[in-house]
Amino acid sequence: MTWVRDVVRRIRAWRRIRFTAGGVAFTIGTTAVGFAALNTGNNLLYLLLGAMLGFIAVSGWLSEQAIRDLHVERQIPRAVTVGRDLLLTYHVRNRKRYLPSLAVELSETGLAEPAFVSHVPAGGRATARSSNGFVRRGVYPLGTLTLGTSFPFGLFRKERDVELPGEVVVWPRHDLAVRDPAPGAGRLPRSGRSPRGSLGWRGEYRSLRTYRRGDDPRDIHWKSSARLRRPVVREYEQGASETRWICLDTRGVEGDAAERAVEIAASLAAGCVAEHRPFGLATPEGVVTPGDDIGTLERALDLLARVEFDPACAAPAPPVAPRSCVLVTLVGAEGFSDTLLVTAEDAEAAARARLKAVGAEPGAEVAA
Questions:
Q1: What is the CA radius of gyration of the chain?
Q2: How far apart, in whole angstroms, are the C-alpha atoms of residue 285 and residue 306?
Q3: Taking the complete model, does pTM exceed 0.85, yes or no?
Q4: Are 278 and 245 a contacting pair, CB within 8 Å?
Q5: Cα–Cα distance, 302 to 296 (Å, whole number)
Q6: At CA 274, angle to CA 358 and CA 338, rounded to 5?
Q7: 42 contacts: CB under 8 Å, gap ≥ 6
Q8: 245-253: average pLDDT
Q9: What is the pLDDT of residue 1?
Q10: Which of 81, 214, 293, 305 is deepest in the core (most CB within 10 A)?
Q11: What is the distance between the alpha carbons of residues 171 and 186, in angstroms, rounded to a whole number?
């Protein structure tokens, strides 16, 4: 029943305590000393028993103070790419007036590496960080943060849960060496020419302007720069006719081949941005409107991180004519200007590359 689960969750979130190996040995020793004191009536054994029980009581009280009245805020990067480390930052505030918190570990459900804060002064703050890696794209929900400590003697580990909703977005790799689509593939037919003629994917010439940091050196107009004694570059109109449309076909089974297809689509998009070429992305999950900036690429990677493959999925339906799209597919399709078909060999090679990037063993799903 739902209310029973809620009660169990609240009780579990309140406090949990478990023995460490040292705690088990110490408790067994305490029990043995207690039996010996009862059987012999020896005052020294009673004194030793009292000291050992006091030791346990003090340990429990101090560990309770370590994790009590702590307020935690989690800082999550916007996204992380497969093969790169995700750095989570925790800002811990101690709301106790007199006692510090010592040796507190912060762990997340689903993440392998915890964060650790050694000292949070009374009424003060501290920062802890953890680094995790992923070998699969996707959206990984975060919800429960566990505060734990074995302070001060390592006999017991006391824990409590804190609800901190959030998610980690893992982008697919987008640095693959992908073959260039066929000349003109993915572009809408040109409707006309400027008086100065077409200049290819750069668009139609518009004017000259002062050079800005990040401009392509190939666009510098050297004669005008020499005459004006400052660098100037050619500026182009990049209309819809120069947009490269990338279409991802999600008809297929989740696995290495599907991941390879997503990585190819992401790499095509990243290549367009590197060339200052506008691109658009169409998937069954949504459409990214054309652009050639980093923001457009990030929106495309967010969308690709969320796509799911299903053999029963509908065929691609881009917002433009299919003959104007580059198709990335597992099963093949007709009517597109160019098709990048992912084979089983490509998928196996990509899986090995992803695992090698994070140092994971073959067969691993998520190494976080």
A1: 30
A2: 8
A3: no
A4: no
A5: 10
A6: 90
A7: 36
A8: 91
A9: 60
A10: 305
A11: 23
